[in-house]
Amino acid sequence: MEIQGLAFLPCLWVTWTLMGLCVVYTMTILEGHAPTYMLYISETGSYFPESNVFTTVFMLSSILGAITIYFQYKFLDIQSAAIKIHCSTSQKILLVVGLSSCIGTSVVAAFEVEDFRVIHRTGAIISLGFGTVYNVCQSKYLYQMSLSNLYVCHIRMALSLIMAGSLITFLLFKIILIYELCSRSCCKKVCDTSAVISEWLSVLTFMLHYLTYYKDFQHLCITWKWNKCEFISLRKKICSETNFSALQEEV
Question: What pTM does this model have?
Fold first, then answer.
């Protein structure tokens, strides 16, 4: 038995998370729990009933994210062996970084910002901070090992850098607001609005990054033979094409 083409995994993760965010945001507005349309993501899950949806969305998102990141690790491990690039240690480190990001997301889901402000914010920093490091570093490696074309690799790296820039911008504006470095009301409003936009942009680019995994995951499969699971491997057709390409390069 063989499950061919795992491209649905990153697509499912991205679709579930973004649609969930849209639902939670809409519920918050319709329930009248928001004084303005410019809401931080955490503010969309502060009150019942949207808080329950918020927890469900991000808890399942963390699980789907962990599965996707682990499968991506296996893909890069297979590819590095095929093209004779030794990066197992760095990939294991990045796997830990990526899984840590998912753990941060689960913390955000489990602890609401109103009741557990410090824990919630710590989880958010781990989720987005580690996620940014993971995305940028993997984008670099995928220039060598991705089965996607160079154009997709450029898009992947651009999304990662936009996410990094958005996150840095968000943190700068939040520092200004937290330490009251700006005293005028108009200045505070500009900083607050900029921080909200930066946060949403960082999450959006973070998720869109994983849609670029679509082609790579198409070539992955899970195989069972007589109760023995060979787990993740490249599909046979792709393996033969990869070996043939490597042979041509040697010639």
Answer: 0.88
C-alpha distance from residue 16 to each of 3, 28, 99 (Å): 22, 18, 18
Q: What is the DSSP string of 7-26?
A: THHHHHHHHHHHHHHHHHHH
User: Sign of the CA dihedral 194, 173, 24, 134?
Assistant: positive
CB 192 within 8 A of CB 198: no
Q: Name the phi and psi angles at 157, rounded to 5.
A: -65, -40
Per-residue tokens: 163: 């996410």
Q: How many residues does the chain have?
A: 251
H helices, E strands: number in the chain: 8, 3
Q: What integer pLDDT is reported at residue 35 of this predicted model?
A: 84
Cβ(213)–Cβ(223) under 8 Å? no
SS3 1: coil
Q: What is the residue whose two structure tokens read 């082609």?
A: 215
Q: From CA 104, how far away is CA 126, in angstroms rounded?
A: 5
Which token pair is 5? Answer: 């083409």
pLDDT of res. 239: 47
The secondary structure of 47-101, three-state, reads: CCCHHHHHHHHHHHHHHHHHHHHHHHHHHHHHHHHHCCCCCHHHHHHHHHHHHHH
